[in-house]
Specification:
Helix 5 crosses helix 7. This protein is about 30% helix and about 25% strand. Helix 1 links the parallel strand 2 and strand 3.
């Protein structure tokens, strides 16, 4: 699935948060041990299987608290051990590191992005030159339109984007680059965005997504 799994390390306390643990939990633990990290938290961007299938295994070995948005917990319906349910605008304190929780629906009802310093971990909301699907259960292309607009308008242009999948020719990007080169960021009319996201995109684009989509402006 070409997932990215992230570890946020608060060096002052030695605490670490794993974002979307999946597939290879032993590799996550090996990295944490090698870097002297103590895994105390799990942050979920959303509840799709390819982002959460390592949660239970990780919790067997670590007394960690699981963080996700309340709407996503309701959508998922899975019993969680030590859950901490959030709303958009909440902050998670990982030692001395503040992690702001953004509610970014569209891919799922309770999708979240995690903002810390100049970095934004986006899960399946925003990819490098792409965005998450909205045609699966819980998807909402109109919500995605508003989510992407808010991210583009509310975050500094030098914000570094860290996506949930490796779908492009590079592994990270900036908000400025996405505003200029990501076709999903160019729509001004919601119905045009919905048509492109739901019907046209998968027919005319393939991975890896290139930097220049060849679309300067879409109404």
């Amino acid at each position: 699935m070409e997932n990215f799994i992230y570890l946020i390390h608060d060096q002052a306390s030695g605490r670490a948060a794993v974002v979307d643990p999946a597939w290879d939990v032993s590799a996550i633990q090996s990295l944490a041990n090698a870097e002297g990290m103590r895994i105390t938290d799990i942050l979920l961007t959303h509840s799709h299987h390819d982002h959460i299938n390592g949660v239970d295994e990780l919790l067997r070995d670590h007394d960690a608290e699981t963080h996700l948005l309340k709407p996503e917990a309701s959508f998922w319906g899975h019993p969680l051990v030590r859950p901490h349910l959030h709303h958009g605008g909440d902050a998670i304190q990982l030692g001395s590191t503040r992690i702001d929780v953004l509610h970014t629906p569209g891919h799922t009802p309770g999708s979240a992005c995690y903002h810390l310093g100049d970095d934004l971990i986006t899960g399946d909301t925003l990819f490098v030159f792409g965005c998450g699907r909205c045609d699966m259960k819980g998807g909402d292309p109109e919500a995605m339109f508003h989510t992407l607009r808010h991210l583009r308008e509310d975050l500094p242009p030098d914000t570094c984007i860290h996506p949930g999948h490796n779908y492009a020719e590079k592994t990270s990007t900036t908000m400025d680059e996405q505003a200029r080169c990501n076709p999903f960021m160019h729509f001004n009319e919601i119905d045009h965005f919905v048509r492109y996201r739901q019907h046209e995109h998968d027919r005319i684009r393939s991975t890896p997504y290139p930097r220049n989509a060849g679309i300067e402006s879409i109404s």
